[in-house]
Amino acid sequence: MRTIEIDFEVYKALMLRRKSEEVSFNDVLRDLLNLSPSTSFKSPVKIERTDRPWMSRGVKFPHGTEFRSTYNGIEYTGQVNSGALVVEGERFDSSSEAAFFITGDEVDGWYFWECKMPGTDSWKGINSFR
User: Fold this and answer.
1) Which of 56, 73, 83, 98 could form a disulfide with 52 if both were Cys (CB 3.0 to 4.6 A apart)?
2) pTM for the full model?
């Protein structure tokens, strides 16, 4: 199952389009995208709103921590959301998995990424927190 991030206005609009509790968000989106009803989708998607930090190798990155890295001249960004590192809409449990997603190569994520903690203005390499 994939997770997508939506803002509060989109969430409200999706809620208004649900005719009953039996209509899932997946059903609403399939209807909006003019897709036929899914026959394989069995359980509704639970949208979770938590402010959990992301823990990696004993380091706690608070919810909302911003991540960035430049690869081949392109800046990639991510953010800690609900206990995971989210980059380009994909959730990762490790910084190296997120770096591999960007590069396609085995990369030590601790040296690939830098972050900016909530309430701060400075970016630091995440390896400095180990």
Assistant:
1) 83
2) 0.62
